[in-house]
User: Fold this.
Amino acid sequence: MFYESIREASMKIAVIGTGYVGLVTAAGLADLGHDVTGADKDGDKIKKISWGDVPIYEPNLEELLKANQKRGNLTFSYDLNKTIQACDVIFVCVGTPQHEDGSADMSQIEEVSRMIAENLNKYKLVVEKSTVPVKTSAWIKRIISLYKKSDKEFDIASNPEFLREGSAVSDFLNPDRIIIGVETERAKEILVKIYQKFQDRILITNIDTAELIKHASNSFLALKISYINLISNICEKTDADVELVAKGMGFDPRIGGRFLKAGLGYGGSCFPKDIKALTKIGEEMGVNMDLLKEADQVNAGRVKVFLEKVKKALWILKDKKIAVLGLAFKPETDDIREAASIRIVQELIKEGSILRLYDPKAMDNMKEIFPEEHYRLSYSNSPYQAIEDANALLIVTEWDEFRRLDLRKVKKVMANPIIVDGRNIFEPADVREIGFEYYSIGRK
Ligand code: UGA
Assistant:
């Protein structure tokens, strides 16, 4: 068979798109022993990556990229046409940003599909890895069929990623499942071979199912977070402690303790987008999606709940010096997409507060939205600099660095010993004993 060569020889894999998903996928596939080319039309980005200058912060990614570049099984190119021609398997990892109405912008996927069509010089397997709405593969297939100039065959597959930012490399190298959505035996064989190392964790489905598994998983986790946040609102009206409620619930293996952390809610490039996209897809199909809509509403309300606490602590926010610790949408990343910090800072700016912001990794990204010269805010070099003379300290992202703060020292340098903790990183009794007024989520 004509794809015999692919099965026997080592596979040449292209990973198109060098964002979070693309870079981790390229490095991870190379680490599994495959011959991988990471490709992106952004030439500057590719040059930087080739020199070892990784554009994002993701633990262990730089090391994995470098090790595999050195081994010779990972290269980068901005020549998409040449890369597509040279490769047998093409992983599509380009972005699918969100339109105003919640639907995903599929223009980059379409562009890559057309390129694949134009460069179909031999059989290729096109694997869609970006989070995409159900039926996207059918569109990719249609676009390639429509624009292809040769009679060469191709297959489409869906292999959704489940990487978490901040632990994406270890998630790739030790996945809890590999979902392979295919419609032909040959596509299945190729993907099973690529992921041979994880054969005990492979689930093979049709393409629609694979696409839906991704959306359904993310929306379910988002639902879980909104659920515990809803419960935290009840805790605040009673003597219940949401941390213990979550712990008690988590002992039940049917529920599980993970993703039951109450706080400022979910952010990032995935949950907010995916829950809206699945809602939109369902509604287009005539399915009532109120359950997910409500979960997203609960999430949208988290910043308000938090700011009410800040107001309760300070009353008037105008001219108050407020230290905001944590800007990334979660720890161990520099990503601020859909981060609660953005709305919090926006609101505090409106109120006329004087802000001092600090984050171990995300300040450069935040500066692009809130440059120091345009607002009454500044970026600090350390948490201690941020809190100097502050009227209140806000915890917005639960970086370990903040858990390790010397709270006695913190108390000394602040103007007023007030902490509003949106992530419940401290024990209320401990901080109060030091002399702080302490506000957290879902507990007294
Ligand atoms: C999420 C999924 O966890 C991954 O499996 C998936 O591959 C990825 O989206 C994606 O679709 O690409 P990620 O967005 O990196 O990964 O981050 P998570 O660790 O899932 O956290 C998402 C948000 O939920 C963060 O803002 C986090 O602070 C918040 N969260 C998480 C909570 O508020 N409470 C929790 O208990 C857990």
